[in-house]
Amino acid sequence: MPFTPADEAKRLAWSEIENDWHTQYGQRVPRWQCAGCSEPIGGLEDLMLGDGNRVHLHKLECLLRFGERWRNEATAGLRAFGLDPPQGFDAGT
Q: What per-residue confidence (pLDDT) applies to 87?
């Protein structure tokens, strides 16, 4: 699919509305729990995310898994409102 400014604007707008949905309705896990793998943070280093969730700092997979999950949840929530992502949009990116 060739790049056009209109397509980029649609992707940016969708990403923003996904983030807004997540801010309003997204899952918040307990402070002791990793939002990516659901295991306890324990005494390990963690990364505090802007939404208040935390992920293990030593496992990049935790951050990636959480990002993919919240975007998929946001897309499902927005579809329930009758909104669909732009054509070719990948929720995991």
A: 86
